[in-house]
C-alpha cells in the first residue's frame, strides 16, 4: 500500500496492521500487543519490510500502530518520516533511518490532529507540511512550526469548498512545491497557490474543464512536469493531472453501478500570469493509476481500472496496459501504449522508480481483509518490475554509464562535472543532459514529493576514447530542490544511465 525508495537502494514497504497476521514473522520473538485490536490482539508478524532491490531480499520491520492510508516524506538526512494513519495511528509520526539494523521509531502524538488520507510534502526548510485528511480541512507542520507559536494547525477553507457533501471526495489532495516557494494544491477539479508562511491563497486557478473530481476516491493522479532552464530569470512549472472518475461515481458503486473512468488529462502552466488548462485524451480510461516520473522526463501511467472508483470492491475492468506520456511531444502525439502486465493492480497498489531505471510495482488489496479466492480480484502479494523501452537491448549501446562515486554530496549553485562512458562515439553531444530526481512516497495513486529537475549542460567534452565529461550547475536554492537525497542520471537523447545518489544540503 505504501512504498518509498531510500538512498541505500532499499524500498520501505508497509501495509495496515489491523487485518490480522501477515506471512512474515517478526524476529527474536517480538510481538505487537494491542488490546483494542478487533482481529488479533497479539501479533508477532511484520506489517512493514525493507526490500533490497539489488539482492531481491527483505528484512521484517516493526510498526506498533496502524499506518493505513498515511503519508510521508524523506528528511534531508535520508530518514523516512511517516505521518498519520488509522485508529491508534492517526496522530502518530514514525521515523525510519536507513541502516542495516534500524527499525521504525514511533512518536505518539507527533501530530496535532488526526491525519488519515492526508498528503505530505517536503519544504525548503526541511520540514514537512501535512495537508488534509478525513474531516480535516487544515494543515500542520512536522517538526512543528519553528516560530514558537503554540498553534500548529491552520485552517484551509479550500478543502471545505472542494468537498462534496456526504462523499469526502477530495482526499489525498495533489500538492507540489512551486518554483516561487508557494504550494500548488489541487482537490478534485479546483486548484490554488498557497503561501503557507502566511496562510494565504495567492492565486486561484481555473476549474478543470468538465468539473469532474480527480482526487480520492475518484483517484486520478498528478505529476509536476520536469523543471528546466533553472538559470533563467523566469522559471516555468507545469502540472499534469490524468484520469479520475465522473462526479457521483463513488456513490453509484454502492448501488453496483460502475461508471467508466475519465480518459482525459489536464495540463497547466502554473507560473503563467493567466494559466489555462490544456485538455488531452488518453488511449483509454483510467482510475487508480500511478504516474511515475522517468529519468528522461517522460511519465509512466500504470496500474488501475477503467470503471468504478477507489474503495472496497468498487473498481472494475483492470487496466493492464501502461501508457507512456512523452512530455515534450506536441499535443495529440504524447501517448504510447506499453507492453501489458497479466496481474490486475487495483485498489491499494503502487509503483515507484528504482535506481536502475525500472519501475517496481506491487500490491492490490481491494477487499475488507486479505481475500485470495472466491473474489473478483484476489489480494496480490507479488512484486513485479516494469522495464521502460529505454532498457531494451537494442538501446544498450546508447546507454551512458556514470563513472563518478555512487554517492556524492552537493551544494546549491555548485558547478558539477560527471564523467561517463559510452559504447559508441558520442556524435551528438547536444543530446546529453543530466536529470536530478527526488524519489517519491507513493500511496493511493499519488507520488508525494516526486520532482525532476533538468540540469542543462554547460559543456560536454572528451576525456579519452568513449569517456566523456559533462559540466552542469546544481540548482541554486532549496525552493527549486529541497535538501535531501536525489538520483542523478546522465541522459543521452531519451536513454538514461543508471542513477547515482547525491545529497544536496
Automatic annotation (TrEMBL):
Domain of life, per lineage: Eukaryota
Protein name: Aldehyde oxidase GLOX
Sorted UniProt keywords: Oxidoreductase, Secreted, Signal
GO CC aspect terms: extracellular space
UniProt source species: Cicer arietinum
GO molecular function, one term: oxidoreductase activity
Subcellular location: Secreted
Domain Glyoxal oxidase N-terminal: 1-390
Main location: secreted
Domain Galactose oxidase-like Early set, chain residue ranges per copy: 399-504
Signal peptide bounds: none
Amino acid at each position: 500500500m505504501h512504498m518509498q525508495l531510500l538512498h541505500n537502494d532499499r524500498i520501505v514497504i508497509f501495509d495496515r496492521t489491523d487485518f490480522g497476521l501477515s506471512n512474515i514473522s517478526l524476529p527474536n520473538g517480538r510481538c505487537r500487543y494491542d488490546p483494542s485490536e478487533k482481529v488479533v490482539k497479539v501479533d508477532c508478524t511484520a506489517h512493514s519490510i525493507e526490500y533490497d532491490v539489488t539482492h531481491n531480499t527483505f528484512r521484517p520491520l516493526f510498526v506498533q500502530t496502524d499506518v493505513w492510508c498515511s503519508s510521508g516524506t524523506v528528511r534531508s538526512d535520508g530518514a523516512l518520516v511517516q505521518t498519520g494513519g488509522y485508529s491508534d495511528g492517526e496522530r502518530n509520526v514514525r521515523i525510519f533511518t536507513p541502516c542495516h539494523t534500524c527499525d521504525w521509531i514511533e512518536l505518539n502524538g507527533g501530530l496535532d490532529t488526526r491525519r488519515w488520507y492526508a498528503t505530505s510534502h517536503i519544504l525548503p526548510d526541511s520540514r514537512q507540511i501535512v495537508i488534509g485528511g478525513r474531516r480535516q480541512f487544515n494543515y500542520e507542520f512536522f517538526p512543528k512550526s519553528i516560530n514558537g507559536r503554540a498553534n500548529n494547525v491552520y485552517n484551509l477553507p479550500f478543502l471545505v469548498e472542494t468537498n462534496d457533501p456526504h462523499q469526502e471526495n477530495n482526499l489525498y489532495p495533489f500538492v507540489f512545491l512551486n518554483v516561487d516557494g508557494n504550494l500548488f494544491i489541487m482537490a478534485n477539479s479546483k486548484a490554488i497557490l498557497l503561501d503557507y508562511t502566511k496562510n494565504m491563497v495567492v492565486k486561484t486557478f481555473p476549474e478543470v474543464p468538465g468539473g469532474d473530481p480527480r482526487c480520492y476516491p475518484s483517484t486520478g493522479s498528478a505529476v509536476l512536469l520536469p523543471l528546466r532552464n533553472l538559470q533563467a530569470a523566469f522559471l516555468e512549472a507545469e502540472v499534469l493531472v490524468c484520469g479520475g472518475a465522473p462526479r457521483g461515481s463513488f456513490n453509484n458503486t454502492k448501488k453496483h453501478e460502475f461508471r467508466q473512468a475519465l480518459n482525459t488529462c489536464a495540463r497547466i502552466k502554473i507560473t503563467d500570469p493567466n494559466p489555462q488548462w490544456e485538455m488531452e485524451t488518453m488511449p483509454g480510461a483510467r482510475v487508480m493509476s500511478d504516474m511515475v516520473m522517468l529519468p528522461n522526463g517522460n511519465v509512466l501511467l500504470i496500474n488501475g481500472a477503467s470503471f468504478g472508483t477507489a474503495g472496497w470492491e468498487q473498481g472494475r475492468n483492470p487496466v493492464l496496459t501502461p501508457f507512456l506520456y512523452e512530455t515534450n511531444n506536441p499535443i495529440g502525439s504524447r501517448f504510447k501504449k506499453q507492453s501489458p502486465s497479466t496481474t490486475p493492480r487495483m485498489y491499494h497498489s503502487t509503483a515507484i522508480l528504482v535506481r536502475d531505471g525500472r519501475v517496481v510495482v506491487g500490491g492490490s488489496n481491494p477487499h475488507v481483509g486479505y481475500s485470495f479466492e472466491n473474489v473478483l480480484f484476489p489480494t496480490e502479494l507479488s512484486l513485479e518490475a516494469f522495464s521502460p523501452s529505454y532498457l531494451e537491448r537494442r538501446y544498450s549501446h546508447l546507454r551512458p554509464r556514470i563513472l563518478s562515486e555512487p554517492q556524492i554530496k552537493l551544494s546549491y549553485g555548485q558547478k558539477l562535472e560527471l564523467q561517463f562512458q559510452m559504447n559508441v562515439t558520442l556524435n551528438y553531444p547536444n543530446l546529453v543532459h543530466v536529470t536530478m530526481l527526488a524519489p517519491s512516497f507513493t500511496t493511493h495513486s499519488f507520488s508525494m514529493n516526486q520532482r525532476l529537475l533538468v540540469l542543462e549542460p554547460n559543456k560536454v567534452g572528451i576525456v579519452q576514447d568513449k569517456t566523456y565529461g559533462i559540466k552542469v550547475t546544481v540548482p541554486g536554492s532549496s525552493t527549486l530542490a529541497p535538501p535531501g537525497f536525489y538520483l542523478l542520471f546522465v541522459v543521452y537523447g531519451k536513454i538514461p544511465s543508471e542513477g547515482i545518489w547525491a545529497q544536496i544540503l
